[in-house]
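Q: What does the assembly look like in three dimensions?
Context provided by user:
Components: four
Sequences:
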Amino acid sequence: MGIIRKTESVGALLNEFKNGSNAISAITLVKRLESKFNKTTVYRVLDKLEDDGVLHSFMGDKGIKWYAKCDGCSKSEHVDLHPHFQCVACGKIDCVAVDVTIPKIPNREITASQILIQGTCEGCTSK
Amino acid sequence: MGIIRKTESVGALLNEFKNGSNAISAITLVKRLESKFNKTTVYRVLDKLEDDGVLHSFMGDKGIKWYAKCDGCSKSEHVDLHPHFQCVACGKIDCVAVDVTIPKIPNREITASQILIQGTCEGCTSK
DNA sequence: TTTATATTTGCAACTTAGTTGCATTTATAT
DNA sequence: ATATAAATGCAACTAAGTTGCAAATATAAA
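A: Here is the predicted structure of the complete assembly.
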């Protein structure tokens, strides 16, 4: 069950994702907003925004949950099968629009894939 | 720093990975061996076996750590950049030997990739 | 074979990320 | 204006994994 009411917390979270295609970890959002909202609320609103197809989530390298704005997702269908890129130097993750072809695997039916590409981002390479 | 002594715990853990290319989650190993070894020991030995290139680890879907036997890894170089397949029905994960080509991304230097392919395995499809 | 010593182990306590139950508050339709 | 379902805050909890330290043990040296 997604968002039903337009509350302050929903606005605040959407605002965090307003600009940029960067992903933000759940725990980062909890910390950023902890003066205004309880962490339970943050986790719950993130959950609902994902249900609604507004955000999508995925697991980062250290077992923590990240969220990013959906592009072309709807309540009924999440098309966020794009890879994510994590800079091993600064830790930032963003969505990348490249297509990665997953080959068929004998005797398996593939329905989804989680691809985390790791390396160094532009800012960190030049340092 | 990898394994230095051949202790009972090392033997027990290696034994768990003896047959099959299946991955086993750290927490599963902790539970399987909890009558014989402390969980701290299990986590530490897994760590060392990874250092030695005997096992490799990766993150599963729910933020938990999985281990599998390395194939062609050494202490100095882990070549375990192969994808893993997780059955969404039974939860089992194994290493798959397919090659997935990660395209170059502008302004990023790619050093590694974590690919988790999800779907249904043979056993679960036929049910 | 004994001894010295560094490695390994167990234990308890801790950490981090996230979840749950429940009472209170609040947005929205009537 | 009010009823009511949804949203929130709080505290307590869970699950996976980590840390510090004292005790035990594998291995090399004598």
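Follow-up: Chain B has one domain: 8-125.
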